[in-house]
Amino acid sequence: MHHSHHMQFLSELKAGQQAVISAIEAEESLFHRLSALGFRVGKPLSIMRRASFNGPLHVRLGTTDVILRVTEADRIQINAI
What we know:
81 residues, alpha+beta, 2 helices, globular
């Protein structure tokens, strides 16, 4: 079975890619933390840079730059632009 529209997560993106947040699947404390940082459904973001495969991601949301752990980025579903 191959779905052309598989769920994509922020952790899968490469530097330079842009996306829109489609869902945040996190437990309450992380959900609130991400929310406070500006991660909300419908918001566009871009990956500025990322460290090695399991290293942190440097994400830009509007004018805000955020460093996310891969475990956090794994909870954020996106649609790549």
